[in-house]
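Please go through the protein record below and see whether the fold suits the sequence. Record follows.
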Amino acid sequence: MLRSRCSPPSGNADGWGNVGTGQLRQLLHDEPKLRRIVRLSKKVQSLQSEQEKYLMANYTMAKKNLSLKPWLENGKASLASKYQQLQEMKTTYQEKQRKLEIHLQKWNLQAAVTHVETELNGAEAESEAQVERFLEGTVSLNSFLETFQSSRKVVHLRKCQLEKLQEAFLRDRRIQHPLQARLNMTRVCRAPVSQHLAAPRAYRLTPAFLIPSENVAPFPLLSAPPYRILPPLGTQADQYQVSQPRTRSLNLPHRLVAYIPLLSPKPYKSNYADKRYQLPHQ
């Protein structure tokens, strides 16, 4: 009964279910036999095989890594040298860029045109000086011909260079003007509306009164000639009667001219002492 209580289940794969309690106690006291049983078990053997496999893979990987160590060291050294070359090239590029900007500011098309014009003026002055020396008789004919031909050649060469530079300068200006206009238009479109508006204009209004001319002038005014009066729209020419002026000519005193507002757009102030022709609205 004790055996059946302490025995392992009968379905054990190693067959420990048929071993008695006494045999198990003897097996516990027999250390070498117990180790041999554990070593020969299938689970332990599978674990040992996996261990050996992983150890072999680890050994192979370590060996490969050690073989790549020289290549890694060479790569590090090459990378350091490349960085050094990059720094040197960067310094050289910055120096050349600075020199290029200086030369571009100094030797643009406008500066080149000015320089060639100066050389052309100098060459023409030199050729004129040679002619003057020849006319004075200080230079022989052979030497004059030799030097004059070379100087005139320089003059013609400078003229050709000046023409080409001027053409290139004008062409660049034609190309840059549309681009500059587009840039200006883009800036204007992107600018706020308040920047485009001009300052509001201030107007001063003066009150005025409409007064008929019959009340202003104490005499009948001249009317337009009949041939300048056009009939109103929608009427026939024979139905329209042209009004004749009441007077053809009128001898007006000079002091009454100032009181006719139709003859002067600006207000007129008269300091004349006579107050007989005072305006009604005053």
Remarks:
- The two ends are 151 Å apart (CA to CA).
